[in-house]
């Protein structure tokens, strides 16, 4: 699974760099969500889902993360679940689009 994650991560970085949307050189979870833009919050939240095999349906998410779809199919637990909840809280505070 690590190999698949590495391929997805490399594809995301390549796509982000070519689109000029790379948020930071540090891991997403190392960032402070209170300092993130709506776009960065969206990316950080969906990056967690991508690592957990979520089946993306929107064109935007598929273009950045691919279709996903591998076990556990986006089910989150522990630190990932808490991190996503924190990101969603900041998205609501900022009035980010859904």
CATH topology: Methane Monooxygenase Hydroxylase, Chain G, domain 1
What is the 3D form? globular
Look at the structure and give the CATH class: Mainly Alpha
State the helix count.
Answer: 4
Terminal residue distance = 30 Å
Mean pLDDT: 80
> Which regions have little confidence, pLDDT < 50, spanning 5+ residues?
16-26
Largest sheet: none
Number of domains: 1
What Rg do the Cα atoms give?
13 Å
Helix content: 55-70%
CATH architecture: Up-down Bundle
Walk me through this protein's architecture.
With 98 residues, the chain is mainly α. It has one domain (2-94): Methane Monooxygenase Hydroxylase, Chain G, domain 1, CATH 1.20.58. The chain is built from four helices and no strands. It has helices at residues 2-19, 38-51, 59-65, 78-94. α2 (38-51) runs antiparallel to α4 (78-94). The relative contact order is 0.16.
Summarize the structure.
The chain is mostly helical and 98 residues long.
